[in-house]
Each structure stands twice: as structure tokens, then as C-alpha cells.
């Protein structure tokens, strides 16, 4: 009658992209394991579902038959545990202090990287052909549509998640005003 959850910490850049430490939104730092074991959890299944750590509580509620409080923001991952093709969400949002915001879908990631005050760099990566995110496609011919689509999604996350937050978070968005 015991459920075990193993959640990995964000990874460490050790020279990738010229960075050292945890200060980024690249896959090597944000793609981490989340493992469930116990009653109601199928053994040996792997899922590529997009999840956040705040999904753990909703998942534990469903696995234990506990009513989920209305204040819980996460989604249960039980459906994804039972069907590896089940998507919990179509995009993921990432942030690092006041210098980076990113969003990814199933094929691409957009990173809006604020290098210094009011200077910025847009990075676009094709995660299917470039999983190490080494070729920035933001300015490449034919990339404008996917940049615009992901930027719209990024701004949706801004409106949903960062409205009313501290000046530290909102100061990032002044670069795009």
C-alpha cells in the first residue's frame, strides 16, 4: 500500500551552450526523470507526456482515491501511466529568473533569451532533428511561422502564469513591450 515517487532535479550544464550550472532552459537542464511505483501504477511503462512537478499531487490523489482539492492546479498523470500515447498537455513552459522564457511543443522549442538589459536573442530548435539544441533556426528561411506560433503560446503562458507576480518576473516582459 505504498506509492513511491522519484522526481529528478533539474540538470546541470557542464559546458553545453557555453554555460556552467543550472541557469538555462535547454533540454539538458530541464528534461528530468519522474518515476512512480506502487499500487495502481503499471510496471515497466515509459511515457513522453509533458508534465510538471505540480502534477504529482493530483496524480497521488487519483491513485489513492482521495478527492482532489479544487485549489490543486496540476493534472493527474494516471491516464499517461496507463497509455504511453496519452498527452497530458501539448506544450511546456520554462523560465529562468529574469533572463529567459521558453516554450516547447512536440517538435520545436522557442527560447527568448535576454542577454542584457533590453537586448534579446530568439532561439528556435527542431527537437526532432537537433535534440542537443545546437542549431538555432530562429532566422532560418521557413521558420517565421513556427516562431510566431510558439511566441503566441509563450505570451499565453505569460498571461496565465505571471500576471501579478513580483517585479522580478514581470521585468522580463518589458523587453517585449
Strand-pairing-aware structural class: alpha+beta
Q: How many runs of DSSP E, i.e. beta strands?
A: 8
Which architecture name of the largest domain does CATH use?
Answer: 2-Layer Sandwich
Span between termini: 52 Å
Which sheet architecture does the biggest sheet show? Answer: 4 strands, antiparallel
> What percentage of amino acids are in beta strands?
15-25%
- Compute the number of structural domains: 2
Order of helices and strands: EEEHEHHEEEEHH
Question: What does this 3D model show about the protein?
Answer:
The protein has helices at residues 27-30, 55-64, 78-82, 144-162, 167-173; strands at 4-7, 13-14, 20-21, 34-37, 92-96, 100-104, 108-116, 119-126. It is an alpha+beta fold. It folds into 2 domains: 4-82, no CATH class; 92-176, Arylsulfatase, C-terminal domain, CATH 3.30.1120.10. The strands form 3 sheets. A 4-stranded antiparallel beta sheet has the order 5-6-7-8, with helices on one face. Strands 1-4 form a two-stranded antiparallel ribbon. The chain is elongated. The protein starts with a strand and ends with a helix.
Short description:
With 177 residues, this protein is α+β, with helices and mostly antiparallel strands.
Notable features of this structure?
single chain, 177 residues, alpha+beta, Arylsulfatase, C-terminal domain, 2 domains, four-stranded antiparallel sheet, two-stranded antiparallel sheet, 8 strands, 25% helix, 22% strand
Amino acid at each position: 500500500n505504498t506509492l513511491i515517487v522519484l522526481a529528478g532535479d533539474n540538470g546541470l550544464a557542464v559546458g553545453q551552450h557555453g554555460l556552467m550550472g543550472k541557469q538555462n532552459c535547454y533540454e539538458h537542464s530541464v528534461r528530468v526523470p519522474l518515476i512512480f511505483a506502487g499500487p495502481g501504477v503499471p510496471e515497466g511503462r515509459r511515457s513522453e507526456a509533458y508534465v510538471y512537478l505540480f502534477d504529482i499531487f493530483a496524480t497521488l490523489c487519483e491513485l489513492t482515491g482521495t478527492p482532489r482539492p479544487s485549489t490543486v492546479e496540476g493534472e493527474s498523470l494516471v491516464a499517461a501511466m496507463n497509455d504511453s500515447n496519452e498527452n497530458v498537455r501539448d506544450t511546456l513552459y520554462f523560465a529562468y529568473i529574469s533572463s529567459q522564457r521558453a516554450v516547447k511543443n512536440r517538435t520545436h522549442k522557442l527560447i527568448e533569451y535576454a542577454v542584457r538589459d533590453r537586448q534579446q536573442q530568439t532561439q528556435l530548435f527542431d527537437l526532432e532533428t537537433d535534440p542537443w539544441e545546437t542549431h538555432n533556426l530562429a532566422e532560418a528561411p521557413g521558420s517565421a511561422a513556427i516562431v510566431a506560433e510558439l511566441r503566441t503560446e509563450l505570451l499565453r503562458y505569460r498571461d496565465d502564469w505571471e500576471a501579478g507576480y513580483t517585479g522580478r518576473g514581470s521585468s522580463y516582459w518589458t523587453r517585449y513591450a
